[in-house]
From TrEMBL:
Keywords: Hydrolase, Magnesium, Metal-binding. Gene3D superfamilies: Fructose-1,6-Bisphosphatase, subunit A, domain 1. This is 3'(2'),5'-bisphosphate nucleotidase. It comes from Panicum virgatum (Blackwell switchgrass). InterPro entries: Inositol_monoP_metal-BS, Inositol_monoP_superfamily, Inositol_monophosphatase-like. GO terms for molecular function: 3'(2'),5'-bisphosphate nucleotidase activity; metal ion binding. Mg(2+) 1 binds at E156, D218, D221.
Amino acid sequence: MDMAMAARLGPLGLPHAALLGSSAAASTRALPLAPSRAPRLPYPLPHFPTCRRPSSSSSAAAYAARPRPRRGSPRLLAVRAMASGNPYAAELAAAKKAVTLAARLCQAVQQDIVHSGIQSKADKSPVTVADYGSQILVSLVLKMEVSSGPFSLVAEEDSEELRKDGAEEILEEITDLVNETISDSGSYNISFMKEGILSAIDDGKSKGGPTGRHWVLDPIDGTKGFVRGDQYAIALALLDEGKVVLGVLACPNLPLSSISNPNGSSSGGQVGALFSATIGCGAEVESLDGSPPQKVIDLLI
């Protein structure tokens, strides 16, 4: 094969010429030479920057300093939630389970308060028992249900008072009440000793912060209403990178009939509402007895 043939074959090279055979090689001589440059397009091609990391130190510094969306941006969190369904589905289920158990404990204590005629939140009172018990149940359930990563709970109570001499009786009462609530729910086949109860209380001593995930709890929001046998709530929220992404509110004494029902169905005189909302997914309400949730609002939080 002469040099002219090799030039016409271009990158195919000599081995391909041998495979083509003499007749193919002869016909190849009639092929025109490849153009030296591509034809000019009537429109400019779009520019796509490469994704390779720069090699030099100066360009590497510029690459590291490039602008990028903030991880905790509410808009970014909302977009991710809408794109993937609910990225906080496991956390939402755990939060609803936790505050539901806490509400059951508070309901039992409130009945005792109403019958005994207690009028204030004094030390070692049933109100204090409910505060501790609510926080303990939320802490225990969240740790058992959402175990990935470090656990951080910002709450009200610590175990200092319960570790003092003379607090054995109230600690035993709290321990029995927590174990009884867990047993009656049928959710867990487990019983906690006093030290485990104290440890669960101290799990709520986190200071939170602008990074990471932090649960924030008010074990009884509305102490005066609780003492009167009136309205109160167990309020729980989840912060992710400093932004509220999830909230659950249990209202044990709130009649469902007081909430507008978009489906027009009757609440049947049920008392006890559980509100929940996740960023990008709207808000829902359901009864504390576990009825199917109903959409409250379609606005993003």
